[in-house]
Amino acid sequence: MNVAIRRDDRGAVTAELALGLPVLLAVTTGLVWLLSIGAAQVRTVDAARETARAVARGDDEAAAVSVGRQVAPEGVDVEVVRSDGRVTVRARGHLDGPGGMFGFLPGVDVSAEAVAITEEEP
C-alpha cells in the first residue's frame, strides 16, 4: 500500500512576508535616521561657517548669530569668540531620536567649528 503524502505550500509566501516586513521596516528606518543625522551635521557646519564669515566681514554679531541659527537644525547653539584678529564660531546641539515606535534609536550630538580672519576696514 503506497500512500502519497502531499504537502501544501499555500500560505508560505505570506508567512515569510509577514516575518520579513518588520525587519525591512527597521532597516529602512535606521538608514533614514542615519541620513537625517548626516544632513543635520552638514547644516551645523554651514551655520558655523556662515556665522564666522558674517562676523569676520564686520556684520553685527547678533545678526550673524541669528543667521547661523536659521541655517542650523533646531536646538543648535551658536557661540562666537574673537581673538587675535580671528573669529571662531562653535555650533553645538543635540538631536533627539525619531521617537514613537522607534524610541530605542538614540539621540546624537552635532558640532562644528569655523574660523575666519577678521577683514580690515580700508
UniProtKB/TrEMBL annotation:
Q: Does the keyword Membrane apply?
A: yes
Q: Which positions fall inside the TadE-like domain?
A: 11-53
Q: Which domain of life is it from?
A: Bacteria
Transmembrane ranges, per UniProt, are 12-35
Q: Which UniProt keywords apply?
A: Membrane, Transmembrane, Transmembrane helix
Q: What is this protein called?
A: Pilus assembly protein
